[in-house]
Amino acid sequence: MMQSLRPLLVMMLTLLAACSLENGVPAISQQQLLDTINGGEDILILDVRTTGEYAEGFIPGAKHIDHREIDERLHEISDQKQRPVVVYCLSGIRAAMVESTLIENGFDRVFHLQGDWSAWKENSLPITKPDKNGAQL
Fold first, then answer.
1. What is 2-122's CATH number?
2. pTM for this structure?
3. What is the set of active-site residues?
């Protein structure tokens, strides 16, 4: 029975992912973000993966807030509503949820990183790891 449900489950998850990513947030390419970082532009890069995922590496300069904690920790970034905010997770679903929360809370320059962490790592772009104490940049 489980095997007969597998194609249906895959289709439902695919549709859910597609719907989640269609929240109207403009995308920024991997290269655009890298150019922005290298140019020293004033942006907030928000990594919304889990703490375990973050510990394996993150985009240089990214602030980590687990997607499950965004409501409780929104105050940490509320003074940055006027800055561009680039959000990423592993594949996009969690980032889309956080992007909606940010927009609902007055962030008006929210962008989604195309390809998320998966593409960043696959393209061998620069990564940083937390220091031994778990502190972030």
1. 3.40.250.10
2. 0.80
3. 89
Q: DSSP string of 43-110?
A: -EEEE-S-HHHHHT-B-TTPEE--GGGHHHHGGGTGGGTTS-EEEE-SSSHHHHHHHHHHHHTT---E
What is the dihedral angle through the alpha carbons of 6, 7, 9, 14, rounded to the nearest 10 degrees?
140
pLDDT tens, residue by residue, 76-107 = 999 999 999 999 999 999 999 999 999 999 99
Q: CA 3 → CA 10, 11, 14, 17, distances in Å?
A: 11, 13, 17, 22
pLDDT digits (tens, 9 = 90+) for 49-71: 999 999 999 999 999 999 999 99
CA distance 74 to 57: 22
